[in-house]
Every structure is written in structure tokens, then in C-alpha cells.
């Protein structure tokens, strides 16, 4: 029977595949992309909630108008009438001060079909699907506390802490 709990540095070095499974890899991958693309410190990125993330698609009826969409629509793009370039994410980060008088700008993140490994839309949509398999109602934090090697907390208020993030290495 496998024991769950924190891994020591020696255990991680002896069994590199044991430190995290696919689900945790995808969560950390999204965290890196968000931090790098939006120039956030990792402790800022850990505070992002699902309410801050809005998937959008171009309105086919009106030029330069976007409507809210679902991550499933983006992932099933081959079955829809939309193209990859028709999607974006509006990321509203109320905790990031971007103006000396308190103005907070939204981040508009567009699909990157030429660089799929850097596409935040794909990473967010994939994480949405993976997270929904374990937690049916996604509320609160996008990045949750790691449990075991490939699980995360189902409690929406259990955000991954900066210390827990550093323990992932």
C-alpha cells in the first residue's frame, strides 16, 4: 500500500516520476504560464480565482464584440464553427496594482496557435476540464492545495500556498 504525504528530497531524487502526476503537472504548467505571461509573482498567481477568469469568443454577428464562452467550446473547436483565433480569456486580477492611482487593467490573453506550448487558453481550458473531473463545482481558487502525488483539495477555499508551491520541487 502506498503512503501519502510529503516526499523528501532523497525520495524525489530516487524516483523522479513520483513527485507529481499528470494533474499536478498541468496545474503547475498553468501557474508558470500565467506568471510568465502576465508578469506576476507566483504568490500573486496563486490568488487567482475562477471568478477572475472569463473565456470569450468573437461574436459572429457583430464585429469587435466578444461574448462569454465555455472552456469546453474551445477544447471542442473542431466540432464548432469557430477558429482558434476567435477565442480569448479576460483575466481580471483585482489584487494587482498596475497604476499609481489604483487603476487595475484587465489582461486579455489570446490564443496562440503558432506556439501551442505557450497558449494560456489551451492550458486554462485543459485545467478546467481536469479540475472538473474531481470537483464538479469549480468555485474560488484555480490553484489548489496539492494532496498526494496527483491530487488536489476539493475544498474551494484551500488555495495552494507559496510554501506548498515550493515543496513541489
Automatic annotation (TrEMBL):
<protein>
    <submittedName>
        <fullName>Uncharacterized protein</fullName>
    </submittedName>
</protein>
<keyword id="KW-1133">Transmembrane helix</keyword>
<keyword id="KW-0812">Transmembrane</keyword>
<keyword id="KW-0472">Membrane</keyword>
<feature type="transmembrane region" description="Helical">
    <location>
        <begin position="20"/>
        <end position="40"/>
    </location>
</feature>
Amino acid at each position: 500500500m502506498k503512503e501519502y504525504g510529503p516526499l523528501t528530497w532523497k525520495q524525489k531524487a530516487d524516483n523522479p516520476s513520483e513527485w507529481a502526476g499528470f494533474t499536478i503537472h498541468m496545474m503547475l504548467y498553468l501557474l508558470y504560464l500565467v506568471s510568465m505571461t502576465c508578469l506576476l509573482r507566483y504568490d500573486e498567481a496563486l490568488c487567482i480565482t475562477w471568478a477572475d477568469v472569463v473565456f470569450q469568443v468573437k461574436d459572429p454577428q457583430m464585429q469587435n464584440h466578444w461574448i462569454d464562452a465555455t472552456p469546453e467550446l474551445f477544447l471542442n473547436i473542431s466540432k464548432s464553427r469557430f477558429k482558434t483565433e476567435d477565442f480569448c480569456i479576460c483575466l481580471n486580477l483585482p489584487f494587482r496594482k498596475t497604476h499609481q492611482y489604483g487603476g487595475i487593467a484587465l489582461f486579455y490573453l489570446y490564443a496562440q496557435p503558432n506556439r501551442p506550448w505557450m497558449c494560456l487558453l489551451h492550458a486554462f481550458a485543459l485545467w478546467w476540464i481536469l479540475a472538473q473531473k474531481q470537483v464538479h463545482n469549480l468555485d474560488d481558487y484555480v490553484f489548489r492545495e496539492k494532496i498526494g502525488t496527483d491530487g488536489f483539495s476539493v475544498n474551494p477555499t484551500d488555495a495552494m500556498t507559496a510554501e506548498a508551491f515550493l515543496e513541489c520541487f
